[in-house]
Write a structure and sequence with these properties.
The chain is an alpha/beta fold and 165 residues long. It has 6 helices and 7 strands, in the order ββαβααβαβαββα. The strands form 2 sheets. The chain has a 5-stranded parallel β-sheet, with helices on both faces. A two-stranded antiparallel sheet has the order 1-2. It holds the Pfam family DHquinase_II. It comes from Haematospirillum jordaniae.
Amino acid sequence: MSFPFTLYGRSRRVRTSVMILNGPNLNLLGTRQPDLYGHETLADIEAMCHTHAAGLGMTLAFRQSNHEGELVSWVQEAPGAFGGLVINAAAYTHTSIALMDALLSVQIPAIEVHLTNIHQREPFRHNSWIARAAHGMICGLGSHGYILALDALNALLTDQKQKEK
């Protein structure tokens, strides 16, 4: 598969394409601990993200996996295809040095998202390996955090485009 490039960097299409990655158990949203995570499903969040991204002039790929290696592979495939990443690594947030290393390696903006405020939860959830590689973190705002992450990436990518001129 080939991706559009210009002599001076990524084309507009790549720059405005975003990949949203979701980690383990997020496929169970809506039924998994609704008192903590709410009743929205991952499909509901995906639809909301597609609508918001379209309004920003962005396209996106929305993916979920319960497998760490698959998430790492998707991060590694992002450069050249996507201008930025939104990642809710779920439990891998607190354990995956491999995901952190992959995010550091790709050198494209990433925003970390969590539905709940990980800093108000169990002490082991307070540490985020992903935060060490992300441009920012949004947590505790439910599904609206994904919208805020798309807005943040839009601002980062717009700023990046202005600097390239």
